[in-house]
UniProtKB/TrEMBL annotation:
InterPro entries documented for this protein: Riboflavin_kinase (IPR023468), Riboflavin_kinase_bac/euk (IPR015865), Riboflavin_kinase_dom_sf (IPR023465)
Identification of the protein by name: Riboflavin kinase
UniProt keyword list: ATP-binding, Flavoprotein, FMN, Kinase, Magnesium, Metal-binding, Nucleotide-binding, Transferase
Membership in a protein family: Belongs to the flavokinase family.
GO biological process, one term: FMN biosynthetic process
Cofactor(s) demanded: Zn(2+); Mg(2+)
Gene Ontology CC annotations of this record: mitochondrion
Metal-binding found in the keyword field: yes
Amino acid sequence: APFPVRLSGPVIKGFGRGSKELGIPTANIPADDLSEKYPNLETGVYYGVVALDPKSYENENDSNGKESTTLLPAVLSIGYNPFYKNTVRSVEIHIMPPLTSPSPTAVAQPKFNRLPDFYGTKLNLLMLGYIRPEFDYVSMDALVEDIRVDCEVARQSLLREAYQRYLVDDGKATEQ
Ligand code: ADP
Ligand code: MG
């Protein structure tokens, strides 16, 4: 796909299983119009940045009270989650802490403070790269382990010089 790929939509209820228990919540947005918009989009795991409505992310508002859109790194899957054998395609986005400095190892990855739920708010996503296809797993632990690696790959990738222009929000970065 020709990156960046823009996706957006209201945050909807997902399958309500797994992700919160896995410790990896994923904000789901509708996948309905994907094939129309991007007919050749591969299923798999991608990375990108997300703009959340500041009202759903109050702690991150500027101290001077000025509203700003917060851009956060994200890892997402588009597809059927073979481990869960979904029959409909979903777009599931895990949002990560801001990129400040490189985390030297996956182990040192900052532990994310769960955000307050933001169902119903509009999520704008800028997909910047492809990580891998979807796999099935023998266990939930194996699945979680791979997602952790994906998160690290996403963060390290987004630190590359060429992406820096996407990380500063000029108000246009993730505009649809
Ligand atoms: P669902 O199956 O409804 O998608 P999840 O267990 O995947 O439920 O949790 C996703 C929800 O959790 C999101 O819709 C959002 O409201 C909330 N959430 C909290 N923190 C995050 C995060 N870091 N990334 C994505 N969603 C988050
Ligand atoms: Mg989800």
